[in-house]
Amino acid sequence: MNLQNKLTDLKRQALSEIEQTETPDKINEIRVHLLGKKGPITEILRGMRELPKEQRPEVGSFANKVRDELTNAIDEQKEKIETLLTAKRLENEAIDVTLPGVPVKTGTPHIIMQVIDQIEKLFLGMGYQVVDGPEVEEDHYNFEMMNLPKDHPARDMQDTFYITDQILMRTQTSPVQARTMEKHDFSQGPLRMISPGKVYRRDTDDATHSHQFHQVEGLVIDKHITMADLKGTLAKIAQTIFGEEREIRLRPSYFPFTEPSVEVDVSCFKCGGKGCQVCKQTGWIEVLGAGMVHPNVLKMAGIDPEVYGGFAFGLGPDRFAMLKYGVDDIREFYLNDVRFLEQFSQKG
Ligand code: 2NL
């Protein structure tokens, strides 16, 4: 058999072998075996030495053609195998996006936070800032600046968690307001702020007392602030939490940091004012305390009470939530029993 026939034979055999190959390893093996230094093509080319000189170019070019054809066939088969493997892998790894998912159990804001959020939204809408501050406070900001002198009964060890004789757990959020008043630059405009947050009292926990609860205080300081501004603002709070139809009434009261001071009642959201269990037949429910900022408080913050005045109020989101949702034990808010908390899910 001449070399051309040998090459043609080899080609036919090799092509059929290549075509039947199914793995990348096997195709690499064929490549090395067929086209390598010890392979049949190299061997046939070596046999050209036996040929007469004039036949060599023709056989040589034929051999090169066969080698190129086989190289192409190997490359093509390799690509075919890889495409097939990729397709198979994609099929195996396919995700059915129409399958129902595993539901994720999400929580909901705590009911106290829901009340605070509502109040924040209302006051942000009226141009107030919402300000945070430390829960571990200095006696100076918590009491002194709020016009509670050293011998005042509210400063008693009995009622306050003292850390040292100067450091304590804040009993109100007013120290945040004291710090803000002190820093405020009135040439830039009035001060309008609320300070929501946790407060602490040295109480024994029971249905109506918790050693830690919440407060939102509000403060406006400007020229020409009157009690009418205060009353309108308080009515807005009452209506936001207890319903658009609510009215408020003010009764005289006493706080060291305001003068005059008032206690604020809201018309009963249960009976509308006719008298029922919730309002104890009075038609009114006490919901917060407020007043005009005491001149001493302004002075201590470096504000001239002859030029500036303001109003302030303090309310308890815990009490608001208890009233609004008929919760009769404040401790429910802090036990974190999911069965209690999820009754106030916002998801509906
Ligand atoms: C209440 C009463 C109140 C304030 C808090 C306050 C703050 C500054 C100046 C003056 Cl910086 N007053 N806060 C005023 C009146 C009442 O809280 O019954 N809270 C539960």
TrEMBL record:
Q: What class of enzyme is it?
A: ligase
Q: What is one GO cellular-component annotation here?
A: cytoplasm
State the InterPro entries in the record: aa-tRNA-synth_II, aa-tRNA-synth_II/BPL/LPL, Phe-tRNA-synth_IIc_asu, Phe-tRNA_ligase_II_N, Phe_tRNA_ligase_alpha1_bac, Phenylalanyl-tRNA_Synthase, tRNA-bd_arm
Q: Where in the cell is it found?
A: Cytoplasm
Q: What is its EC number?
A: 6.1.1.20
Please name the Gene3D superfamilies in this protein's record.
Bira Bifunctional Protein, Domain 2 (3.30.930.10)
Can you cite a GO biological process for this protein?
Answer: phenylalanyl-tRNA aminoacylation
One GO term in the molecular function aspect is: transferase activity
Describe the protein's quaternary organization and the partners it interacts with.
Tetramer of two alpha and two beta subunits.
The UniProt family comment states: Belongs to the class-II aminoacyl-tRNA synthetase family. Phe-tRNA synthetase alpha subunit type 1 subfamily.
Query: Under which name does UniProt file this protein?
Result: Phenylalanine--tRNA ligase alpha subunit
Q: Which gene encodes it?
A: pheS
